[in-house]
Amino acid sequence: MFHSSWQSQEQAHPYWGPELLARVVKKTSSVILGHDEEISLILIAMLAGGHVLLEDVPGVGKTKLVRTLASVLGCDFGRIQFTSDLMPGDITGTMMYHPQRGEFQFKRGPVLSAHLILADEINRASSRAQSALLELMEEGSVSVDGETYPLQSPFFLLATQNPMQFEGTNRLPEAQLDRFMMKLGLGYPHMEDELLLLQRAHGEGAQRLPGPLLAPSELLNMQRAASRVYVDDSIQKYLVQIAASSRTDKGIRLGISPRAVLAWMRASQGSAFMDGRMYVIPDDCLRVAVPVLAHRLQPASGVLASGWSAADTVKQLLSRFELPRQRAAKGGRG
């Protein structure tokens, strides 16, 4: 076992949390077939208070996944369609003049009116519109005309984007990518799942969204519990070693940022909580490493042409250091 101090925390574990989350995964996967792990990873990011970027080809269920999750989690849902003419005020809200009152009043934007926001095709908007997301993703608030407005609590941004080679797409700035805790892809379904999808559509028509299993307040309580999951010093040191190694690697132009290390630790805590533990083990860190780290790495000049893969690079970084070894608790055997 790891350090003995986690034992008292384990006894205080809110066991109802992982059980509820397992039901959320099951209910969501009954609509979005064949993606249990991706659904679990999104929930892990939510437990850690992070945002998720879904990148994939059109038509694989990204938007439906977000809508279904919002319904099952009992969260107020908002959708913003990102286009080339989208303005920051369309996201955050803007001051509008009321002639009858002879004054300006703030009209709240969609991000202030929902717990879960779908930013659909986020990479079709201009950099000016993208800039409106930076504050709300990091600070949980938006500023308009010198006034600061807090977002709903909890608040999550789930964004979809098309691959960069698609028509009309723009590359997201590194600073914005770094604010997404995870980047995931769904991929095409297995043949069995796709066949079931056709049979459902043929027999029942449009499928209704499932009802809620919990409320936003319960999700907020789970976030607080997940933040108390114990992380041993040896694991923290392991995370920092990996990050430092990425910053000195000659094949990497932009390595793992301090924000990314913190996101990695919090995601590992979320993974432990999902598994019913109040302490992180190395497997938690390995499970979330690629979704948390890969989209933040940038290759050095000339490396990309040689078939560079961010996911493979993360795995190579992980292999450079020995996993933290388990230490016996007091009174146990070494």
What does this structure look like?
This protein is α/β, with parallel strands linked by helices. The chain has helices at about 5-10, 15-30, 35-45, 60-75, 90, 125-140, 175, 190-205, 215-225, 235-250, 260-275, 280-295, 310-320, and strands at about 50-55, 75-80, 95-100, 105-110, 115-120, 140-145, 145-150, 155-160, 180-185, 250-255, 300. The strands form four sheets. The protein has a five-stranded parallel sheet. Strands 3-4 form a two-stranded antiparallel sheet. A hairpin with a 4-residue loop joins β3 (about 95-100) and β4 (about 105-110). α9 packs across α11 (about 260-275) and α12 runs antiparallel to α13 (about 310-320). The relative contact order is 0.17.
Tell me the layout of helices and strands.
Layout: H1 6-11, H2 16-29, H3 36-47, E1 52-55, H4 62-73, E2 77-81, H5 88-92, E3 93-98, E4 103-108, E5 116-120, H6 127-139, E6 141-144, E7 147-150, E8 156-161, H7 174-177, E9 182-184, H8 191-204, H9 216-227, H10 233-248, E10 252-254, H11 258-274, H12 282-293, E11 298-299, H13 310-319
Parallel strand pairs: 1-8, 1-9, 2-5, 5-8
Antiparallel strand pairs: 3-4, 6-7, 10-11
Strand arrangement within the widest β-sheet reads: 2-5-8-1-9
Can you give the mean pLDDT? 85
Derived from helix and strand composition plus strand pairing, the structural class reads: alpha/beta
N→C terminal distance: 9 Å
The DSSP helix count reads 13
Helix content: 40-55%
Poorly predicted tracts of residues: 1-12, 327-334
Oligomeric description of these chains: single chain
**Large-scale geometry:** globular
Order of helices and strands: HHHEHEHEEEHEEEHEHHHEHHEH
The major pleated sheet works out as: 5 strands, parallel
Computed over alpha carbons, the radius of gyration is: 21 Å
The number of distinct β-strands equals: 11
Tell me the fraction of residues in β-strands, as a range: 5-15%
